[in-house]
Amino acid sequence: MNCYTANRSWSDRYLPEIRRIVGAQLLDVAADAFDWQQATDLMMLDARDVRVAARVRRPGYGSRYPFEFTIRSRVASGAETELAKIVNGSGDWMFYGHASEDGRGLAAWWLLDLKAFRAALIRQAANGYRIRSGDQRNADGTCFKWFDIRSFPVEPPLVIARGAT
Questions:
Q1: Which position has the higher pLDDT, 98 or 14?
Q2: What's the pLDDT at 40?
Q3: Contact (Cβ atoms closer than 8 angstroms) between residue 73 and residue 81
Q4: How many CB atoms lie within 10 A of CB 105?
Q5: pLDDT > 70: what percent of the chain?
Q6: Residue 154: what are its φ and ψ, rounded to 5°?
C-alpha cells in the first residue's frame, strides 16, 4: 500500500463525522413565512455546489499546534499540491480537524472559508498585512505551509464554524 493510500484510508474513517459537521453548516431554520406557505422547515444556505477540502491531523498535533492549520505545499513527485489548487481558486471551504487521542473522533476542528483565505493572502501581498505562517518539511519529502488562524484579518472572516470536544 503506497503512502497516499494508507493516509487516505486513515483519514476517510473521519468522513462520517466531517459530513455531519459540515452538513449542519449548510442548513438553516427557515423563516416562519416559508413554513406557513411552502411547507419548508429547513433551507440550504447556498444553492450552488460547495466544494469542501478535508484534512484531519493525527492525535497529538492539536495540543502542540492549537491555532495552526497546514496545507500541503510540495510533494516529491512535483504534482500540483493542495496549496496551489486553493491559491488558484479551487475549493470553497476547508474542514480542518484534529483526531482525538484515542483516534475515535475529532478533538477539535475548524471550518474555514477559502475565499477569505485567498483574500487574506492577496491583502498580505498587496498591503503588507502580516499572516503568521511558515514552512514544514517532513522526512518523506512532503512539505506543508502552516498558518496561524489568529493572525488572519477579521473581515472577511476566515472561520465559518469551530468545535471542540
A1: 98
A2: 85
A3: yes
A4: 12
A5: 96
A6: -70, -35
The candidate with the shortest Cα–Cα distance to 69, out of 138, 144, 128, is: 144
pTM: 0.84
Cα–Cα nearest to 92, from 26, 12, 151, 7 = 26
* Grid coordinates given for 73: 505545499
User: Other CB atoms closer than 10 Å to residue 54's CB: what's the count?
Assistant: 19
On whether the CB atoms of residues 71 and 86 are closer than 8 A, the answer is: yes
Residues in the chain: 165
The closest of 61, 24, 52, 38 to 115, measured between CA atoms, is 52
Q: Which residues of 63-87 are buried (b: 16+ CB within 10 A; e: fewer)?
A: eeeeebbbbbbbbeeeeebbbeebb
Phi, psi of 46 (to 5 degrees): -145, 125
Which residue type, as a one-letter code, is found at position 117?
A: F
- Of 110 and 164, the structure prediction assigns the larger pLDDT to 110
What is the per-residue pLDDT for 153?
Answer: 93
